[in-house]
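Hi all, long-time lurker, first post. I run a small reading group and we've been trying to get comfortable going from sequence to structure in the token notation. Rather than ask abstract questions, I figured I'd post a concrete chain and ask someone more experienced to write out its structure so we can walk through it together at our next meeting. Sequence below, copied exactly:
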Amino acid sequence: MNEDLLKKFKNVEMPKILEETTPFINPEKLEDWKTILVSNSDNGFKIAMLRLIAELITLLGKGETCEKACDLIAAKYALTVWHVATAVDFASRVSIRGEELMRWWNNRWEVPDRVTVVNPSVLELKKKKDE
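-- Answer (accepted) --
Happy to help. Here is the structure in token form:
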């Protein structure tokens, strides 16, 4: 691994996560993944989220279905839908199966035409047309 990159990590786990997930990252998105790891390795919550994202990417890369991979990480860590949606969002940006993951997730929440990952735990405020 590049020495300059190693110096940028603020947490010792990040090089291992990068090494383990690289085979499952879209080669065109590898630099984005490195940036995500470097820029979010500075506090415990972000590091925990990166572990979840990495585990999701790895499960998908090893052939799990999108549903089973999401269900496995949700059950293993007792996650809320917000956590899973965040993991899906970032995994879909860099994973070799990212597009498939995003489409599956959005279909699950009945918004198949959306071009970004929906987070069903985020409330929306909409006025009725006649108001």
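A couple of things your group might point at:
The chain has one domain: 3-108.
The first helix runs from residue 3 to 8.
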